[in-house]
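Course exercise 7: structure representation. Students receive a sequence record and must write out the corresponding structure in token form. The form below is the worked example handed out in class, using Flagellar protein FlgN (155 residues). Read each field label carefully; the graders check that inputs and outputs are placed in the correct fields and that the protein name is recorded exactly as given.

STUDENT ID: A-19
EXERCISE PROTEIN: Flagellar protein FlgN
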Amino acid sequence: MTRPHATLPAEHERMTALVELMKQEQQFLVAADADGLAGITPRKVALVQELAQLSRERHGALGNAGFLTSEAGMEPWLAAHGDEAARSAWTGLLALTAEAKELNRVNGMLINRQMAHNQTVLNALRTPTAAPESTLYGAKGQTFGSAPSRRFVVG
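STUDENT ANSWER:
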């Protein structure tokens, strides 16, 4: 039977890697480096999937041992069956998880700021103010954003 603390070293390793990727992501967000972000995303997804699988295994082991099958079950299990190494591994994983959550929050704010900036630029392109007679073209070649034309009457 697998013990609930058996997955903690692998979870710690993957969470450490995820935190490092999120720090890189933050640098790419600040630099507006879309190519860098695109390279990180698949690795982040893989790590999150691995972490979810390891967590499910730990929850299953907690359930088999008669404890809650969630994060809340670890403390009672540690109190009843854990040793100092298991407690230390769990505490370390919780600290890394808190760091990842904070990085995720900050990165989300950076993404929102960049999206707002992009929307402002797009709006400026759609409604030119400096050239009342200018025309912009859409993806299919149609015109939009032009001011009313001036027609002269001859005669």
